[in-house]
Amino acid sequence: MLAPQRQAAILDRVRATGGVRVSDLATELGVSDMTIRRDLDILADRGLLAKVHGGATPLDPGATDEPGFAAKSARQRTEKAAIAARAAQLVAPGGAVALSAGTTTAELARRLVDVAGLTVVTNSVPVADVFYRGGRGDQTVILTGGVRTPSDALVGPVAVTAIRGLHVDLLFLGVHGMSERAGYTTPNLMESDTNRALIAAAARLVVLADHTKWDTVGISSMAPLAQAQLVVTDAGTTAPARSTLLDHGVELLIAD
Length: 256
Prior knowledge:
Number of domains: 2
Order of helices and strands: HEHHEEHHEHEHEEEHEEEHEEEHE
Structural class: alpha/beta
């Protein structure tokens, strides 16, 4: 197992169990205690977990906590890849879609680079870069401009003005969290304004959210649960969470 794969497995274990011991991880992953300690040092330095004596625990993100793009990319890699692959099936050649900022939407972009005649509106620098590197001459990418956030989103009045007046078939929206009380949320107030403009521009709202997003609440709500026509999530989303979304009229796609 490569170091990035091992570290992703450690993160998943920490979040699933609420805490891990170095000795248990070493046995489970078949490496030395020293290797696990180095992995924990790397993950702690990147702000992904908290080291404690003999092991590690998850961080407790606040409503305004906004990890950088690289830090978020290391989380739930398998789930995000599955969600992106399932969401890509919703996109037809020649369509107009919007992708908000986020690591799951960036994963989706990698699966859309081969879709012919696609028009993409995005406020995400990494998403735009994926299409730029794809180099297709029959695709059009509109990057909104704006102020760059730690998660590489372009936000603020410039972004909102660029989005107003546009119309797309689908918006794929990445979220910091979702809950029955707060709906779909973000930890960045300006990003919330920009995402509301994207929502208004879309005929259909598709939320991409892995199971860890349920009952996580950012400081600013972007939309109530019922405003999304579809949520694409993974099999780890609990039965009560699924039931709540369905009760609000949201269709679910579960990515295996």
